[in-house]
Write a structure and sequence with these properties.
By secondary structure, this protein is α+β, with helices and mostly antiparallel strands. Among the domains are: about 130 residues, Endonuclease I-creI; about 80 residues. Helix content is about 60%, strand content about 15%. It is built from eleven helices and eight strands. The strands form two sheets. The protein has a four-stranded antiparallel sheet with strand order 1-2-4-3. Helix 2 crosses helix 3, helix 7 runs antiparallel to helix 8 and helix 8 packs across helix 9. The radius of gyration is 35 Å and the shape is rod-shaped. The chain starts with a helix and ends with a helix. The mean pLDDT is about 85.
Length: about 300
């Protein structure tokens, strides 16, 4: 079962309050496949959604709803209101087609009713990705004007979504985890919002560990590279009888590195007969490498 199906099934299982039944049904029907006198229907790949859609309409309006199954590759379920008289009754209860606006906000004056309406809309045309893979939630809306009104309605609750076209469908979406958390909480799934917060924390911890690991790997590579250059320089100076003509502090550093080729700078400092810091030793070895490079360049 996909993450989106799990979330939708959980939201569908929530029982709306008495005042929220019609707003919930309104969101479900308005954002379904069709909402008109000719047809009120929902098409979905989730049989549970088709059954909930039918039950909500039957409960709210005592209207007859049938569910048909189709699809050759994977099952597709279509739930639709059977009679024209029932469709007329439903449309009239929302004053649909009378006002200029697509959404009758007068029936959404209570916050709980608005939340139920949004939940119904999401069940009809929404989608949410598994936060382990990607933060994304979207509403796929067939009517451009309806999409615009819905966008404005959500923005009034601080949830601003982006707009994109997908064929003849308008897609309202966000990839911001905070907005997804707000939307889930608004629809009645705060525990899912907490899951996303937990996922963000885990991702942040993993990223920090990876960054630290990458940084450590880079530092190790630099240390190894520097050690190889130092040993090459010391070997060259020794073979060309220049090693023992170095100043005493550079000579002692060179001998220390030559005799302990695999030791770290900290270990070399601990082995030094004199008190020596890591930065001091590193500076001396760098000087030796510079001398080697200068001599090498002259030789060329």
């Amino acid at each position: 079962m996909s993450y989106c199906t799990e979330v939708k099934n959980e939201l569908a299982a929530l029982r709306p309050a008495e005042c929220c039944i019609k707003p919930f049904a309104y969101g479900f029907m308005l954002f379904g496949r069709s909402f008109s006198l000719k047809r009120i229907s929902l098409q979905t790949n989730n049989r549970r959604m088709a059954e909930v859609y039918a039950a909500v309409i039957e409960n709210a309006f005592s209207a007859g709803v049938i569910i048909n199954e189709g699809g050759s590759v994977r099952p597709t379920y279509t739930a639709q209101v059977v009679s024209e008289s029932d469709r007329l009754k439903i449309l009239a209860s929302y004053d649909y087609g009378i006002a200029e606006s697509r959404i009758n906000t007068e029936i959404l004056n209570r916050e709980c009713c608005f939340q139920s309406f949004i939940r119904g809309a999401f069940l009809a045309c929404g989608n949410i990705n598994d936060p382990e893979r990607e933060y994304r939630v979207e509403f796929m809306i067939r009517d451009t004007e309806l999409a615009g009104e819905f966008l404005e309605l959500l923005s009034g609750y601080g949830i601003s979504l982006k707009t994109a076209a997908r064929g003849k469908t308008t897609v309202l979406y966000t990839k911001e985890s905070g907005k997804i958390e707000d939307l889930l909480t608004l629809m009645g799934a705060p525990h899912r919002a907490l899951d996303i917060m937990d996922t963000k924390i885990m991702k942040s911890v993993k990223n920090n560990i990876n960054r630290r690991g990458n940084c450590d790997s880079a530092n190790i590579s630099k240390t190894v590279e520097a050690s190889i250059k130092q040993r090459m320089a010391i070997d060259f100076l020794e073979k060309t009888d220049r090693l023992y003509s170095l100043p005493s502090e550079l000579l002692s550093a060179a001998v220390l590195r030559r005799d302990n080729p695999d030791a770290t700078l900290s270990e070399l400092c601990a082995l030094a007969p004199e008190r020596l810091t890591v930065s001091g030793l590193n500076h001396r070895l760098a000087k030796i490498t510079e001398i080697y490079e200068r001599l090498n360049k002259k030789g060329k």
